[in-house]
Write a structure and sequence with these properties.
It catalyses: L-methionine + H2O = methanethiol + 2-oxobutanoate + NH4(+); L-homocysteine + H2O = 2-oxobutanoate + hydrogen sulfide + NH4(+) + H(+). By secondary structure, this protein is α/β, with parallel strands linked by helices. It contains 12 helices and 12 strands. It has 2 domains: 234 residues, Type I PLP-dependent aspartate aminotransferase-like (Major domain) (Aspartate Aminotransferase, domain 2); 105 residues, Aspartate Aminotransferase, domain 1 (Alpha-Beta Complex).
């Protein structure tokens, strides 16, 4: 658990370390092992690994709960969705990570549970959908619409309604938003993104402050086998160490870029949640947006985000993206490059006659 006397910028560096004893390494080494001598903890590699534990200790300390890591963000999402009882209802954002929505819609199609879609930024609408629900799924900011939810109020309302509240806080990270401290029951992260931060691993995590709930999630991981690799865990923890400085630089770049994009010819709308590293711009149509994406040289056209490099993507190029997302919306994941270079490249790509 987190030492509340330490600030988050210190926790990202200090948590999950081996004891400070003479001759000890600064970082938990990578433990490649499929079996352990009986009588200890863990007894088998599907149930634990010292390298996982170091990463889980650090992220749990940041979020203020008990962390369970997974092989991917979707493995983490699946484990949380499994908490919904058969026949239960899940309140979900109409805009969210599309594979989260696909997983929940698949469960609804199979008759496992009911899905109630809402505008997560409309508190009254979300609360109106809560009666009888088993879970309220909050994503804030949403992907890719960048709506911001009132996490504290929605978590309190969910608790009053007898529902678990879950927050996908991938875009915010625990340095900008700590949902457990705002009353949420569970936090989900795609560690692949900002937490690891270098576009080189796939990993997920769930954090809960109720030990019984965390135990249920860990039990699911053991049974379903979606365990993280030790090398991925090591790299995720190494990435976490620099989250504070990476996030500070990228978020500053994002706010600066959002300001520069206002009143640019051809940009119909700039979507900026006001924090974090992800923005979106809306151009007039798909063809215009595709041409802009094709013109950039420094920005990387890619579907992933949260790394040190800046990426962009027209989200409706995916047939499974929500139809309420504009065809011309380009999601921008802002990295740590020099802001003038990022702006010059993007504004130059937007400056062609067929864009404006």
């Amino acid at each position: 658990m987190r030492d509340e006397r330490l600030r988050p910028e210190t926790v990202v560096v200090s948590a999950g370390r081996p004891p400070h004893v003479p001759g000890a390494p600064f970082s938990e080494p990578v433990t490649f092992a499929s079996a352990f001598v009986a009588g200890g903890d863990p007894e088998y590699a599907r149930y634990g690994n010292p390298t996982w534990t170091a990463f889980e200790d650090a992220l749990g300390a940041l979020e203020g709960g008990e962390c369970v890591s997974f092989a991917s963000g979707m493995a983490a999402v699946s484990a949380v969705a499994a908490l919904v009882p058969h026949g239960g209802a899940v309140v979900v954002p109409r805009h969210a990570y599309q594979h989260t929505l696909a997983l929940l819609d698949g469960g609804a199609a199979d008759g496992r549970f009911e899905v109630r879609r809402v505008d997560i930024a409309d508190v009254d609408a979300v609360e109106a959908a809560m009666p009888g629900a088993a879970m309220v799924w909050i994503e804030s900011p949403t992907n890719p619409a960048l709506e911001v939810a009132d996490v504290e109020r929605l978590a309190a309302s969910a608790r009053a309604a007898g529902a678990l509240s879950v927050v996908d806080s991938t875009f915010a990270t625990p340095l900008l938003q700590r949902p457990l401290g705002q009353g949420a029951d569970v936090v989900v992260h795609s560690v692949t993104k900002l937490i690891a931060g270098h576009s080189d691993i796939v990993l997920g995590a769930v954090v809960a402050d109720d030990p019984d709930l965390a135990a249920r999630i860990r039990h699911h991981r053991g049974l379903h086998g979606a365990i993280p690799g030790p090398m991925e865990s090591f790299l995720a923890l190494r990435g976490l160490r620099t989250l504070s400085v990476r996030l500070e630089r990228a978020a500053t770049n994002a706010r600066d870029l959002a300001a520069r994009l206002e009143n640019v010819p051809g940009v119909v709308e700039v979507r900026d949640p006001g924090f974090g590293t992800v923005l979106a711009i809306v151009l007039r149509d798909a063809a215009t947006a595709d041409r802009a994406v094709d013109r950039v040289r420094l920005w990387i056209p890619a579907t992933s985000l949260g790394g040190v490099e800046s990426t962009l993507e027209r989200r409706r190029r995916w047939a499974t993206e929500a139809p309420t997302i504009p065809e011309g919306l380009i999601r921008l994941s802002v990295g740590i490059e020099h802001i003038d270079d990022l702006a010059d490249d993007l504004l130059g790509a937007l400056a062609g006659d067929d864009v404006d």
